[in-house]
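User: What would this chain look like folded?
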Amino acid sequence: MTPVTAKPGPRTVYLAEPSALPLAEALVALANSDGGLIVLGVDRDGRPAGEVWEDEAELALHAAASLCRPPVPTQFQSVELPGGRFIGINVPRSLELHSLSDGRVLVRQRDENRPLSGEEIRALSIARPTVDFETETVPGARRDDLNEETIDEYLEKRERHTATGPPSRAQLLYEIGATDREGQPTLIGVLLFGRNPQAFVPQSGVVFVKFPGTEPRGEDGGVGYGRRAELTGPLADIIDRAWAIVFDEMRIGATVNGLEREEVLEYPRQAVREALINAVAHRDYRIAGRRIEIRMYADRLEIISPGGLPGYMTLDNLVDEHFSRNPRLVNGLFQWGYIEELGLGIDQMIEEMVQAGHPPPEFRATPHSFTVVLSNKRERAAPPRWTRSMNERQTRAVNFVRESGSITNREYRQLCPDVSPETLRLDLADLVDRGVLLKIGSKKGTYYILK
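Assistant: Here's the prediction, encoded as structure tokens.
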């Protein structure tokens, strides 16, 4: 029995009926993305839509498979939802590029199956590895090169995310890709649980450098830096140590709110942590000779990750799309608790920076690297001149955001049930145009925060 979330998402598809074409579309979209689960007999809101029999599901899956090029590997499993037990179809992330018989190539974006353009198909095809690099065994590594205490820590955190514990330690390590059938450590096993991962994967470390000014120079203007540190160990330790060293070097101020003194960090805590986790989770570990670099300047923090944007990702669709170069590694960090919500790291970074009064993060991409730049500039809030020109509905929306942190189109419709959706959409668009709100995401995933 596999418990799943109560709503569809990037890795969960609900189909009320086992129809061949919608099922084929879901198969292709999940296989081309991070894989996931299709649940039959459930509508989009997670409510039972009618019983689906096993033979009916098998016939539909057979018909759907004939529409996929090449066929998508699948496996039936039982699924538990608040409404009962249902038939599920598990779809693993595929190493091949799948299309439908009509030529469409789909990927899973949030809770929808999205067709790709020709250029996106080309980029995704290039990014598809010929082998599953994450689960390749590491030459020279043995089972005793994995740290049992680190595995214990992972298992303790993982049990909070799963309804039932793993059948055995050896079976779980194989299922998550940390070892092969014979127990030999894979790349993921060494990175997550290795006693000394850098002995086998030297590029998996992190380098921190702090410069006194705004250029990569020492105090005298020549070559040099204020502090340099090399971080090694399993990835969870690297994330924690990287955050600790950045926090140690951050300037800390204070504001007085009423009678209480509040600490103000140079950079928002969660934005820095998300940037660090993203770099570790999504770098290209096939690129040898270069490590993740954290560069701290007087006016900004730069986190440089080896490897360009994967698959069909571009700077224009970073917020809306999600594609994992290392899906097993990402899932491992998610189960460990380092990633709170899959696919929302960029959104959270933007929101944390803007809410703290900083400019949004700057993202830079080259064919061989991806950089996140956080500015420590803080915009002082001037008395808002737009408040007098807002209508009553917009005032209610802004007050809602102040209390709740954000607002969606649905929440705005609930605030103003007697107003047409188009009028409310124009209200929010007007607030964005005037710089009152900042729009995050797109389509059904859109929400708004104070700018």
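Residues 202-375 form a domain with the Heat Shock Protein 90 fold (CATH 3.30.565.60). If you want, I can go into more detail on any region.
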